[in-house]
Design brief:
single chain; 2 domains; six-stranded parallel beta sheet
Length: about 325
């Protein structure tokens, strides 16, 4: 089978497709015939060697995928051969034609959801649920500002926010992304490149500011985020690519909370609860991943470049 291997940490060019021996599941493991693979920013951080927790080299990247159950190990009770599933986490890495997962790392994929959409679920929808519900704890009618709202996590945040009855403001960088957010039901959309970005949000909120901010680039926005908050507002840091300087007085004067989160910290029992909510939303139609671009597995290096560029408009998927 073909898979992407990383022999040394570095730039996107270290991602190389190799032909390797097929996989087989052990006890409590499942072998998946992969049909689509989700690419996430964290994949690039790990590949670069900058992520705090590093895999042993060589390794195959990736956490998210979707496909058919091909084989099951002894003791597996929650999977059947040829069942459609999506994957969040694995034993062998998802950038491959086959992947071995623990039986706790697979979830049924409804028939009304494509494999490409299924591969968009793992990290983005887990992160969105944890950030919005697990950390921000919204109340119906509150206003949430979602930075980078046209990316995988941002789209998931919009869909969960609608489910909770929140007022949504999304930030984007292109007209295409603005149109997408309008289709998804964002109440207001602001271009984060505009010079009057701050004033526009304050105008939308009638000078009151927002209750919650979903922050995908804390290194760019965190200081300004504090000035956009109402009293007792909450900022959940979902993503960051560097350090940032803030004025703590802006947090103090508002009794504001800055909350960090990582999907890697969610315990197994919590993941099961989260993905039961996700599956319910998929079945009801309230949750629908948006696929922006599909690339062949051989273009994994290109995918790692594109995902860090501005102007995201849906999820980037690799096809094996």
């Amino acid at each position: 089978m073909k898979c992407v291997r990383v022999e040394a940490f570095g730039g996107p060019d270290v991602l190389r497709v190799e032909e390797v021996k097929g996989l087989a599941p052990d006890s409590r493991q499942v072998l998946i015939d992969v049909r689509a693979i989700g690419v996430n920013p964290v994949d690039t951080y790990i590949r670069s060697g900058l992520y705090p927790v590093k895999p042993n080299l060589p390794y195959t990247p990736g956490f998210d995928a979707a496909g058919f159950v091909k084989a099951i190990g002894r003791g597996v009770k929650n999977a059947k051969i040829n069942e459609r599933v999506y994957v969040f986490g694995s034993v062998t890495g998802t950038y491959a034609q086959e992947v071995v997962c623990l039986d706790s790392q697979i979830y049924p994929l409804p028939k009304n959801i494509s494999f490409e959409q299924g591969a968009s679920l793992g990290i983005p929808y887990t992160a969105a649920y944890c950030a919005l519900w697990g950390k921000a704890r919204p109340k119906a009618g509150e206003t949430v500002l979602i930075h980078g709202a046209s990316g995988g996590v941002g789209i998931a945040c919009i869909q969960f926010a609608k489910k909770y009855g929140l007022k949504i403001i999304g930030t984007v960088g292109t007209d295409k992304a603005r149109d997408l957010l309008g289709q998804l039901g964002a109440r207001d959309v602001v271009n984060h490149h505009s010079s009057d970005f701050f004033d526009n949000i304050m105008k939308i909120t009638r000078g009151e500011g927002v209750d919650i901010i979903m922050e995908m680039r804390a290194d760019l926005n965190l200081d300004q985020d504090l000035r956009l908050l109402k009293k007792r507002g909450r900022i959940v840091v979902v993503g960051c690519r560097g350090s940032v300087t803030i004025n703590p007085r802006e947090a103090m004067s508002r009794d504001a909370m800055i909350i960090g989160m990582s999907v890697m910290n969610v315990p197994a029992a919590g993941l099961r609860r989260i993905h039961s909510v996700i599956q319910e939303g998929l079945m009801s139609g309230g949750l629908r991943p948006v696929v922006g671009k599909c690339l062949p597995l051989a273009d994994a290096a290109l995918a790692h470049k594109v995902i860090l560029e501005p102007g995201a408009c849906g999820k980037i998927i690799l096809l094996p």
